[in-house]
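Reproducibility note. Readers wishing to regenerate the assembly model reported in the main text can use the exact inputs given here. Chain order matters: entities are listed in the order in which they were concatenated for prediction.
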Amino acid sequence: VTLVDGIAIVLVVVSLGFFAAGTVGLLRFPDIYNRLHAVTKADNVGLGVLTWALAITAPDPLVALKHLVIWALVLVASTTACHLIARTALRAGVEPWRRP
Amino acid sequence: VAATVTSGVAALELAFDVALALALVGAAVVIIWAANTFTATALFIVFGVMMAVAWGRLGAVDIALAEAAIGAGITGALLLHAQGAEAAKVATRPRRAVSLRRWRVDAVVALGAALVALALVAALWTAPDELTGLGPQVEARSVEAGAENPVTVVLLNLRAYDTLLEVVVLVAAVVAAWALALRRPPAPPAPGLLLVSMTRLVAPITVLIGGYLLWRGTFAPGGAFQAGAVIAGAAILGLLAEFSPPRRDLSRVVRAALVVGVLVFVIAGAVGPLVGDPALTYRGEAASRWILAVEIGATISIALALIAVFIGRAPSAWGRGG
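Running the prediction on these inputs yields the following structure tokens for the assembly.
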């Protein structure tokens, strides 16, 4: 196991933590806005860390760059999707949750 | 240590595959029994993504790409779009009770599905342990057939008539969609600044990826269907962001582009008989050129067919406000 492999393994484990947190948030948070927040924030960080793990172990720099471009595109897409879902919910009259 | 790691990885992979298979069956069951069509549609998209992962796990990257682009992407967009039109209708009409006839139909479909599943299990059960398939034979003919990617060799040369008919089916589907002349769905809310600017950024990249998939198709996974679906995705994004098509009458251009794939394919297929070969065969140096020509024509037609089905109205109406 080389140093780069070791760093990649650490990054993958860290990314799993973010994905797990995002999933727990999606399942347990009280309303659609909170759930969106959990999924889009935590999962995108998780995906980013995972992408870096793949990028540093990639066979050549071009492949590494493609991994990072995929992450950037997912960031843009999920930000927009999150905004559209939240806006639609707000306009449909879904009240944001407040601590009772 | 190496052996322990290898067996550990194998066990992890097996666990992943079993979980994926169970999730696929679970998602299919929930889609069938979902309380409303929105839940079913959302899960159908998830099902498509998981199916793409499953094809990837089986090493069928071509099918994985097609499933992700067409199964999850375009079909998902079509179903959600149809839902927008349907929601307005359903709201004004009382829901009909499930009739006896409906139950009979369900029973026949269930029986048919069970028989197919049984036949597949039986086929797997009786199959020899070492399955080679037709892979080696295809590999052996790939140079003569004009493409390095075995899937492309099969789709565009060895079994080109299958692919020709698929492109024809897509054109027929567009004719049917225009003939049905679906009522215009209620206007969706304004797209908003974020969707518009995302489309400006992402749509050109998406078209570029479509072109890349088309070009790649001759030597690696990719090809006309994946490229066409990805390009159609960019156009659908543009339609949702309300970039309206030009205000000119597009009928002629659209109709010509819809059939260009079939046309190029038929011309390529007619070359064989001229030099004494059967129809739809091309070999030697010309083969790769014919394959590329057919792929380009088919990509244009497939992309346009998917866009046309999404719009759902004849192109004479496209220019007038989307």
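We highlight two features of this model. Chain B has a mean pLDDT of 85. Chain B touches chain A at residues 189, 192, 194-195, 198, 201-202, 205 (CB under 8 Å).
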